[in-house]
User: What shape does this take?
Amino acid sequence: MKDENRYSDNPVQDLLHAVVVQAADDYREAKVKMMIKPESSSARKTAKECREFFLSPEFSAYTTVEGAFILEKLDQELDAFKAKYKEYLDLESKMLQEAKEAARLFMQKDACECEEEAQILKYLLYSKKENVHDLIFTLRDQQMEMPPYARKQLQVPTLENVMLKARTGLMEDNRNGKESL
Assistant: This one.
């Protein structure tokens, strides 16, 4: 009976193939992590090791496909992802700007002594929070369209963590004199 987890009747060939597939997966994951977290030395090390493996003279023992060709295809795939990731970052930036504005309105509403003005600020705050909420869902949709190796590197945004991040950023900008409340 043939094992369903194998690709062929040759287990050695299957193992060699699995090593190449794993190296490709590790390379993709490391390169995406480097895009998302440029300071990651472990991702940089993994990408370098995978590249060296694909370009090594021993690579021909694993497959008849040239390692340089595999790297070229992986890099093309990652370039396509980079464009999608830029769109994602632009949307995330827009969402954080909206959240910052909502945090500013919240702080103004709490400091407001005039009931009428507080009601207007409350309405504006509600509207901004709705915008942030909609952008969060759009970001989540974009995440779901990304390949699994990219998705697992990204934090799933929630209204609570986005608003907390925005308020923290606003307070920090205020302390540094970049922003007044």
